[in-house]
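[job 4471] stage=fold_predict status=RUNNING
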Amino acid sequence: MRRKGQQPNLQRQLIALVAGLCLTIILTVCFMVAVVQVQSAITAYTWGESVWSRAQIDTVHHLNRFSESGDFSHLAKARQALAVPIGDLHARVAITSDTLDWQRAKHGFLQGGNHEEDLTRMILLIRLFSWLDQLERALTAWEGADDLLFELDQIGNAMEREWLAAPPDREQLQALRDKLAIVDQQLQVNAREFRLSMGDASRWAASFLSVVSALFLTLVALLSWFLGFRLVRLLNRTEQNFRSIFEQSAIGIIQIDTEGRIVNANQATCDILGYRPDDLVHRPIGSWSIRKTGTLPGKNDGISASVTSTAIRPSIALFEKTMTSCGPGSPYPACGMCPALQRTSQRLWKTFPSLTVCRRN
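[job 4471] inference complete, writing structure tokens
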């Protein structure tokens, strides 16, 4: 009989194989998601650089207009445009510091005109992969613009002071415009270097991730094939073991489907019941299903049966021929499971534990 609490070896192997296949699928999905996130982060930085460059150009334009006309609305627009690269600056400082400041980084990127859904992946890209040569060069160019941005702010303040004085010094304003042109040129150089570095990072990431993806998917395919091969071999070995028990056992064994009909019967069953195999297949067994003691409807006399319920799922019935006397007063043998039935039941449960084994003595 099957011991309670003892998990069959077959069941453990099946669970291990299925768990391995599921883990492989999960790892594949996670890796593909990571690839998409990295590409999206690089694309977000490329978009952010275009916003940064546009804001820097607008700042220079409005400062030039302010220096010429004294219209303070241009100064306000220049400061509004300058807030975009300044926000990106604060975000980068929050990311590259020893302790990551999520709130400051997100607020800075939002101020820099970046999309809210891109903030997390942008932060993680710099935080996790800033050691890459392409990203390191981009960060160097980005950091090189910090002093120039503050110098733009100082030029705007100096122009404001000149126009607040009456009358403004035109030569001083011209000197500030000349200085503004130099700063603008240097900022464009930094922006170009950042753009080229991010482009290199994008191309490198595309090539690297494509190769890694191909290798990873190849590994997943080989592992899936191996797991499938092991699973098929395990099932084939189980079927062979069951078939060996089924065909060689001296105990009668019948396979029953969910509708209570006989699917297959071994030769021992045919010998016990006196039927040919074709006569038993598709024969209903429901009339034997509620502990009915008596003579089985076979052609051999002297076969007694104590029938246990077959349930409503595929099961196996075990039979043993017990010779009895047909004369008056002859006793019937006990209905307990004999050692041969016990041994066969144990072998079947170990080999094919998903089946229900029902004894018939």
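[job 4471] summary: Confidence is low (pLDDT under 50) at residues 1-7, 286-314, 320-338, 351-361.
[job 4471] exit 0
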